[in-house]
Design a protein that fits this description.
Blueprint lengths: L1 H12 L3 H19 L14 E8 L13 H6 L6 E10 L54 E3 L6 E3 L17 E3 L1 H6 L4 H7 E2 L41 E3 L11 H10 L11 H25 L3 H27 L6 H13 L13
Antiparallel strand pairs: 1-2, 3-4, 5-7, 6-7
Helix pairs in contact: 2-7
Length: about 350
């Protein structure tokens, strides 16, 4: 009996091939979300101010100085340094090698201005997040709380600090989130929440607290922003979760555009600004780069070597598929030793190298 219990416990704690495949897929999706179409070999400085994955180097910059570098610079200029991953920031230019780095030049692009005047920094660049300004992961926090990024201020918030009295919508039921602080600064957005907001415990109805929305004085003909007297009654407190495509509903008349400029939120009108668009660009870039690299490598070989390489690749792929299929069917754990054993066996069965004879005349 004890052997059976021990065997069951071991199986419960093991990782099957199916688990590995699911985890691999999730890791790939996470990579797209963070890196997008980022280039790991060339500094992004020449592209100007753009949305990109950023890293704050605490080794090069003391706590009083806020700066960030692009993905390529994190590899080629700050390898081995203490880096804080910032996920993505919009309208940001790589700081690597400028005046904030005390004379240290960028290894990838030395033609940089001493400062990037349009860059904006907050406590995220210190490795702190949310209104509680704590690090992530927080070594003193025993609660595994999900963190969400506000699409306006781009800070990250613990779900418990979103000021959502009714709770959060089910994960996946919304597309973007705007934090409570940004909703207070941009109250006009509540005008759109009645139709495009996603709420946790109830449908939008005629019950609730009247939204104190902004009416545009002398609203011009053609303005599509919902008027205060036509907005359904919804809660106008806390953070707001939005359904997919909500940005396309924002009015673009002259008065509304001036309002967006006044509030510094004109980026909401840019269809390429969303994180979803950023992720999609990463998927396209990844597919193209893999294909192009593979074709270039293949093209560099001679005709005989090309045929041999293609045959060997297909042979290896089929054998590996059959080998791993047994683990998946039997729900067995794939160990490091198993993978090594597979490739050692492949190496032993590797056919002799093809030598193309040459003849002297």
């Amino acid at each position: 009996m004890s052997d059976k219990i021990e065997e069951t416990t071991e199986e419960d704690n093991s990782v099957t091939m199916l688990d590995v495949l699911r985890e691999e897929k999730q890791l790939e999706e996470d990579a797209y979300a963070v890196l997008g179409a980022s280039d790991d070999k060339n500094c992004t400085y020449s592209k100007g101010y753009t949305r990109q994955a950023l890293y704050a180097c605490k080794t090069c910059c003391p706590e009083s100085i806020r700066a960030a570098v692009c993905l390529a610079c994190s590899f080629h200029c700050h390898e081995g340094h203490e880096l804080v991953e910032l996920y993505t920031k919009r309208h940001f230019r790589c700081d690597c090698g400028n005046s904030k780095f005390a004379g240290q030049k960028c290894n990838l692009d030395v033609t940089k201005d001493s400062a990037n005047s349009e860059n904006r920094y907050n406590h995220n660049f210190d490795g702190l997040y949310c209104i509680c300004k704590r690090p992530y992961p927080d070594p003193e926090d025993n609660v595994n709380d999900e963190m969400l990024q506000c699409v306006v201020c781009e800070d990250w918030y613990h779900s418990m600090h979103l000021e959502c009295e009714e709770g959060m919508p089910v994960d996946g039921a919304y597309d973007e989130m705007i934090c409570a602080g940004c909703m207070r600064k941009n109250e006009f957005l509540w005008n759109y929440a009645a139709k495009y907001g996603v709420f946790a415990k109830r449908e939008i109805s005629s019950t609730g607290t009247q939204v104190e929305c902004i009416d545009i004085e002398n609203q011009p003909k053609g303005c599509t922003m919902p008027r205060k007297d036509s907005v359904n009654k919804v809660s106008s407190k806390g953070s707001c979760f939005w359904s997919e495509g909500w940005r396309a509903a924002l009015c673009t008349c002259k008065s509304c555009t001036m309002l967006y400029q006044e509030k510094n939120v004109t980026f909401l009108l840019d269809p390429t600004d969303s994180v979803h668009a950023y992720e999609e660009a990463g998927k396209i870039n990844s597919q193209e780069s893999r294909y192009e690299k593979g074709m270039k490598a293949l093209a560099s070989l001679g005709r005989v070597e090309q045929l041999t390489a293609i045959e060997e690749y297909n042979n290896m792929k089929e054998r590996l598929k059959q080998y791993l299929q047994k683990f998946a069917e039997n729900k067995k754990v794939v160990r490091e030793e198993d993978i090594k054993e597979f490739f050692l066996e492949m190496e032993s069965k590797k056919r002799p190298k093809v030598v193309v004879p040459t003849y002297c005349r």
